[in-house]
Fold each of these.
Amino acid sequence: MASYKLSLKPSVEKDVRSLTKESLARVWAQIRALANNPLPKNAVKLTGSEQLYRVRAGDYRIIYSVDSQAHEVTVQHVRHRREAYRDL
């Protein structure tokens, strides 16, 4: 399987500022893994959206979209699980 290009929305930088080093490492590992497999077994398609998926990274959720034709994964948000689905 070909590698996908990763892109991050500007809001992701704001989302990860307050993460601990351990949480940040877990989140980045999961994001890098999306480049090789954009739809892993633990990915869940979000209800009410045709393009948004989420994967877990500890207590955090990575919300992202996949463009299969352009081979691109765009990370929309990285949020704590209790705030992950607000304002989507």
Amino acid sequence: MVRSATPDDAAACIAIYRPYVEDTAISFETEVPSVSQMAARIASARESHEWLVLEVADQVIGYAYAHIFNPRAAYQWSTETSIYVANTHRGTGGGRKLYAQLLHRLTERGYRRAFAGITQPNEASNALHRSFGFQDTGLYRRVGWKHHRWHDVAWMQLDLAPSEQDRPPTPIT
């Protein structure tokens, strides 16, 4: 089941996120956020964008969220997205269901573009994003240093809705 996250989901989200922070360069964070920090992130995303969790048997096994792409006003129709699924549930189709719901909700709110920055190499994430229609838009070379080496970040973009609309995105109500 996909549902909107609450700050009470912070500990479960940290449990999913921890291996990404500690063991990979998928996230450029080098320290796992505290429960209060994660709860604040959830609350912030829920104010204007979205943060969803995926539950299986009453256990959170994945989350996806969107946040501000750039703080300047002209970018208000664009958003950056992220998705994390527990290692034990990767490749089961749950992440696809979760991400589809996130993109749908962002479109409903009036966002026109979704961007994803993906540390390379990450063929699973590249394939997931391309399967939703994301297109490659650029590559930041050697932009992040983690685990004793430099990493590239590929940027992908998805058009969520026609550009002709000019009403700003609506907050979650």
Amino acid sequence: MVVAYHYVAFDRGAWPGSPPEVFPSAHVPASYGWLGVQLFFMISGFVICMSCWGRGPGEFAVSRVTRLFPAYWFSVLAVALVVCLWPVADETLRSRDVAVNLTMLQSPLGVDAVDGVYWTLWVELRFYLLFALVVAGKGLTYARAVGFCVVWGFAAAVAAAVDEPLLDQVLLPEDCWYFIAGIAFYLMHRHRPNLALWLLVAGCFLVAQHGLVAAQARAEGHMGHRVPHWPTAVLLAVFFAAMAAVALGWTRRLTQRWLTTAGALTYPLYLIHERVGWLVIRRTARDVPPAVLLPALLAGMLVTAWLVHRLVERPLAGVLRRGLQRSAAEIRAGLSGPPQDRHKITPETFQAGGWNYGRDRR
């Protein structure tokens, strides 16, 4: 959905004309592709709750780092390399900005993102940090998960009322409803549906549909054209219904291998498609008809995503996971046992090196 939105509806100036001119029919359904992000957040709430069950904070952190960073690091470096080798007048990158992007902290630090789609990852990171509070200590339980959802939703509503930027950054008052709904759907899946969980999901839907009015206005600003709002509300209802079907076990028969492959390709495809795709369009659109260029570009991006998954993401994730697991074990051992300094450092060590350690400065 997001790929279609960026290539067919988003007016980036890459095509020879505006999206309605180049894609008279296709631009209308593609104009709602930005909603794929909301679905992604809901799925994330479901998956994160599922992956945290029975795990401690260290295991949770390792699983998230190994899932997010390998493909992300590659995409940052690959996109930066393409932009440098295939420059366009308004497409420049500074090496120091690329370096900061590797931390995934460019948004809070006010650094330009290598690719515009990375903004959602900062939202994800904040959700992970909040959810880590539930995992810490006694671990994740049914009651703690429900309590977290209720408290987070109420706090986010308060944050929206007071309009304090710091609270907005921490509590995600616009996006938290999708994560909370995803968590509630997983609790239905793991245990069983009950009135409290259905009310929680219904509340998330009601607040989310109201917030989509402003979200669509922002999307229309990027697209350069307006579209009716009712399909947005319908799609949101479809997303919630689809998640409910998963939670209730109605999709258990959908175990085809292609679904697993498609799910694995979604993340690398999302990371690499936008800026590189627009560069390709800008370079070739005047010579290649859109009816040929668009399918070829989509096919090329899918192949690239598959290669990233097989050759980069999977091998690097394994190496990273093993290293982080060893590190976590050493940290736990250090917290639970006496210090075991291999090379003991004393004040005399610094004095021997010419440092005035422990002396007053004058």
